[in-house]
Amino acid sequence: MEELHFQTLQINYEALQQENNLLKRRVQELQEINESQADKVKDLHTKLEEKILEEQKEAQDLESMVQQVEANLQMMTKRASKAENHVTKLKQEEVALLQIQLNTYKAENEALRRGETAGMNAVKQNANLALENLHKAVSGAQVSIKQLVSGAESLNIVAQLLNSIDKIAEVHEDVP
Prior knowledge:
Elements: H1 2-114, H2 118-174
């Protein structure tokens, strides 16, 4: 009976030892899986931090670009406004010169009708001087108009650039 009891204990011991070995292997497998998953989590965390930094840099670069474009737009707007004011001033001067020339021609016509030739030379000189000034004003107005057109084209390019930046921002927001 003692031998039977010993055999039973022996069988229980061996069964417990097998179960213990099996549990040790299982624990070791779980530790390896845990370590592998911890490494993956660490790697994913590192990648996430890198991605966040990259997105922050892109956002800063985009913000910087938008500020640059806004500054350029303000500068172009000021230039266009200044050119418009200059064109308006030149047009007013041109109108005044044309009025002077018209008055000179009227006086010249009147003098011709009366036959006054002595004063005609002075009238002609005045007319020529007025004509010369008129040509200068017209040339200046043409330059200003060209500058205004150039400024308008620049503003159009800036508007297109802002539109493109908006589209880039929309695409950037849509990307998860």
